[in-house]
Specification:
Oligomer: single chain
Number of strands: 0
CATH topology: MetI-like fold
Structural class: mainly alpha
Largest sheet: none
CATH superfamily: MetI-like
Number of helices: 13
Helix content: 55-70%
Low-confidence stretches: 19-26
Shape: elongated
Number of domains: 1
Radius of gyration: 25 Å
């Protein structure tokens, strides 16, 4: 019987190693290591990670990478009615209608997009997770009250809500971040609440409760840490949404009131007046927004598949 059990264990370990769950030489492996192994073999994850890393590096080292001051009107004297200088020596992407280097403004614009996206996503995640913990941990009237509030937020289209909040709070960067964060709150709240409900009724949680451990300790020591994987994935996806919404609000004139400060959405808006003869001024920032949002989306979807047991092979 011992030999049969050993043979069965070897077969199980071999199948698990083939699926990337445990090393071929035996022993267990954590969920994080297992997910990282699958991500390394996923070309979609690699592409998304490369885009995100390049975006972060460009934003972090913008002063070193930008060839010129983004506010310098170097070629303003060459700008004419119906004519804007294109690519030339020292200006790889040409200049805008005020004679400013487009490449430098795109590089510095990545900083604004990153700052707005990260801060708004963090704010939305913190508030949403607080509501999700309150609903998922205690249930009852707390769950009902929180979920009805979340349902009200979800009943309003996200962009419409962001526009309304931006108008009420005024035209500034802080209002923009708060407006985008509010649209993220119900997503994180519902996601964490559902994940905690699934973990709350699991065997380990029921066993811990039977041992007499306090509810607060069960929630914050066991249930909450095991419920965070979907939230982390959603945070990556929400960054892409936040960058798009920030660009949309800036395009509508609800972003930073300082129009001279480089920002992709504002650059896209200002290019509308010269589309007929210089469409590149709209194409360049639009491509930046699309590529960066695509990078975060690809990485987030790959993380979802790597951490979800249903996708494991």
């Amino acid at each position: 019987m011992t030999a049969a059990l050993g043979h069965r264990r070897e077969k199980i370990d071999a199948l698990a190693a083939r699926a990337g769950q445990v090393p071929a030489d035996g022993g267990g492996v954590s969920l994080t290591k297992s997910a990282f192994r699958r991500l390394r073999r996923d070309p979609v994850a690699i592409i998304g990670a490369v885009i995100v890393v390049v975006f972060l590096l460009v934003a972090a080292f913008a002063p070193l990478l930008a060839p010129r001051d983004p506010l310098e009107q170097a070629l303003l004297s060459q700008v004419r009615q119906g004519s804007i200088p294109g690519a030339q020596d020292g200006f790889p992407l040409g200049v805008d209608q005020l004679g400013r280097d487009v490449l430098s403004r795109l590089i510095y614009g990545s900083r604004q997009s990153l700052m707005i996206g990260v801060i708004s996503t963090v704010l939305g995640a913190v508030v949403g997770m607080a509501l999700g913990v309150l609903a998922g941990a205690f249930g009852g009237w707390a769950d009902t009250l929180v979920m009805r509030f979340v349902d009200i937020l979800l009943s309003i289209p996200g962009l419409l809500m962001a526009i309304s909040i931006s108008v009420l709070l005024g035209q500034n960067q802080y209002a923009l971040m708060i407006a985008i964060a509010v649209t993220q709150v119900p997503v994180f709240a519902r996601l964490l609440r559902g994940s905690m409900l699934a973990q709350r009724d699991s065997d380990y949680a029921l066993a811990t409760k039977a041992l007499g451990v306090k509810r607060s300790r069960i929630v914050f020591t066991h249930v909450l840490p095991n419920s965070l994987s979907p939230v982390i994935v959603q945070g990556t996806l929400s960054l892409a949404t936040a960058i798009i919404e920030a660009a949309a609000l800036s395009f509508l004139g609800l972003g930073d009131p300082d129009i001279s400060r480089p920002e992709w959405g504002a650059m896209l808006a200002s290019a509308q007046a010269v589309l007929s003869f210089r469409p590149q001024l709209a194409i360049y920032p639009a491509l930046c927004i699309i590529v960066v949002a695509l990078g975060f989306t690809l990485l987030g979807e790959s993380l979802r598949e790597a951490l979800d047991p249903k996708f494991r092979r």
